[in-house]
Amino acid sequence: MKNAKHLNFSLLTTSLLLATFSLSVPLSVFAQDAPAKDEVQAKDAAQAKDVAKDEGLKKSKTKEFFKYLNPIPEKNYTNESQDRVIKKRKFKPIAFPGAKPILNPELGLFAIIPTEKTSDIAFMDELAARPDVNGLSIMVPWQSIEKTEGECDFSAIDQALEVVKKHNKTLILRVTTCGLNDGVKSDTPDWVFQAGVKTLTYKDSEGKEHQAPIFWDGTYMAKWSNFISSLGEKYDNNKYIHSVGITGGGVLGSTLVVPDFAVFEDQDSETLAQEGAAGATSSKSAYGELCSILRKEHKMSERQLVEHWKYVGDIFPKAFKNVPLNFDINPPLLGRKGQDALDEISDYLVYRYGQRVYLTRQNIKNAKHGFDQYRVFLKFHPDTLTGYRLRPDFDLTEAPKLVHMAGEDGISFCEVPPEVLKSEDAAVKAALSDIQSHLGYQIISKEVKIPNNAKVGEPLSASFTFLNLGATGAMMPSRHNDKDVPSSYKIQLELRNESGKVVFRSHHTPVIPTYDWVSDKPITWEKQLRMPEQMKPGKYSVFLSLLEPDSKKHIRFLNAIAQGDPKTELEAPLGSIEITN
């Protein structure tokens, strides 16, 4: 959509308008009145509520009608399905002398391993050893893992995991069912097709024919679900896995369901979308023809795609209860209907599973902002982590512009091809370094003040000043039923005796939770800490850390309290304190 940035909804169709009205109905389930004290009050309250609801709906529909006949201001977009106003995000990068990127496990640059190199341990080891790389990213075809039903060979994944484990880094994993391996008929195993799964024949860029499974086929979905269960049994508790891609319905591990690779090139998406709607054939693209086959022969519809992507999205959290997942936020089809489908699918996944599902924008060739993906990032950056996956032919001249785009999108990780990582171009190197310096949260402890002495049992006054150089706050996942809700990391102070034993430990939540720490504002607060009554007088060393208390997981931060350049710490020494009676 060339003019999508302006959000001119005056061109929306009547069907979209009616769809928007219908979205107001389900929201009522989230707001339930307290029970009345007796039956009479309950009856009166219900009648009054019905009248108010009818009046509210009339006003709402009138308001919506005029809203969609007029442009919405550029800085705001309202997604009625979740009733959240999305404001344009501005990232203000700040610099701190001597600061270097902090490599917490979920953050950083991840080197993409080409398919033909997933068995080359030396190649992977060279990339994983780089100090500017925090992990690897691999795609593996399903057919190479499960050549016979129920018999899985995970050796390719295990090899990559051994490499990242050696360097104490992590792995982004995706298993593909279509489009990755041009040397075989399909990324999906032959035995799946032999079971009667419906297929679509397509040609790759060299004219070779391949098969893609129809992912809403019931037999295919059952086979895929069984495989993902096996994958989860094998890897769900592996701490060296950064995330697992929610795949199985699209091309090259993405969300796009039409296997036409011209869509991945610099072609006019609006033109291709029109061809798809008309079933037209183009000399440059088979997108329209493939769309026509999918609609006519396989009964594809936008509603069907939404519901089946939701189903696929539910398979993965059942198999992976501990390892995070990631979902590609490119539309399943080109055009407005595909973008609406993306909204609904991403709404469902993030509102149901929260921070368990990271959002990744794949197939990035340049620094042009895809507005529909940008809107999804804007909406959900307070809820989960977001990332990029660059193409092997990424335009290196666009690297400096990508810095600004990454900050606005608030990304926490970026999958980078080896060609880009190894570039000797000074501008590319500077851009990657700049991006890395602001990925996710980059926390600096600037100042912590505690008294030199304190009395046993009396309050200890402490003040804290932190900075965040990153594009997002530090979100600690907190599980609520099936959903990980972002919460705040705790600030911990420890007092240790001469032998290093902890004799006092205190942790508290900052006045501003860490998930709300923004880059352009120092975070300062004071806290009264009470010393234990039974503590022995003496001199104690003081240590500062940020952690999740239940799991004892510490996060790395830069300690700028001591002299010299800031140092990456899990626990920062703050000096000593004398405890007296």
How does this model look, in words?
- The chain has helices spanning 14-22, 39-68, 121-128, 142-145, 155-166, 190-194, 218-235, 269-278, 287-298, 302-319, 336-353, 371-380, 399-409, 418-421, 426-437; strands at residues 76-79, 84-87, 108-112, 135-141, 170-176, 199-203, 209-213, 241-245, 325-328, 357-364, 386-390, 413-416, 443-449, 453-455, 459-468, 476-480, 483-487, 490-496, 502-508, 523-530, 538-548, 553-554, 557-559, 567-569, 572-580.
- It is an alpha/beta fold.
- The protein has 4 domains: 4-74, no CATH class; 108-254 and 300-437, TIM Barrel (Alpha-Beta Barrel), CATH 3.20.20.80; 258-298, no CATH class; 443-580, Immunoglobulin-like (Sandwich), CATH 2.60.40.770.
- An 8-stranded parallel beta barrel has the order 3-4-5-8-9-10-11-12.
- The longest helix is centred in the N-terminal third of the chain and has 30 residues, at 39-68.
- It starts with 13 loop residues before the first helix and ends with a strand.
- The model is unreliable at 1-81 and 264-268 (pLDDT under 50).
